[in-house]
Amino acid sequence: MKYAPEILFAVALSVFLAYAVSCDGPQPTRAVHTQLDVYLQYANASKRKHGEYPKQIPLTTDPWDSPYQYTLVNNAPRVCSLGPDRAANTPDDICLK
After folding, report:
1. What is the pTM of this model?
2. What's the gap between Cα 14 and its chain centre?
3. 80 has which bridge partners?
């Protein structure tokens, strides 16, 4: 059976995060930055392959059980975690552009 790359990507990322935020893994903030980097690499690879950034990508939840936020800002990808307070546009948000 053949699976879409997006589904395999989401499953692999979920498994990675489950390990990363376990007591033996890195601190949640480091895990968030690692996952945000992976999402941006995925968006950039998609742009190289298809000529534009994807409108959406499969996202898992951050260590605080909030879904990651993926948006296009001026046709550039932006991926954010809402952080521990789970509220948007607060100082603890972690974003990569």
Report:
1. 0.64
2. 10
3. 69, 95
φ, ψ dihedrals at 45, nearest 5°: -65, -40
Report whether 11 contacts 19 (CB < 8 A). no
Q: What is the pLDDT of residues 1-57, one digit of tens each?
A: 455 566 556 655 555 555 544 444 446 788 888 889 999 999 999 999 999 999 988
5-96 folds as Glycoprotein, Type 4 Pilin (3.30.700)
- Domain layout of the chain by residue ranges: 5-96
The Cα–Cα gap between 19 and 17 comes to: 5
Query: What's 81's DSSP letter?
Result: E
Between helix 5-20 and helix 28-50 the angle, nearest 10°, is: 160
Of 79, 80, 77, give the one whose Cα is nearest residue 52.
Answer: 77
Q: Which of 24, 35, 40, 96 is nearest to 64 (CA)?
A: 35
Instruction: Copy the structure tokens of residue 94.
Output: 């972690």
Predicted local distance difference test score (pLDDT) of residue 96: 84
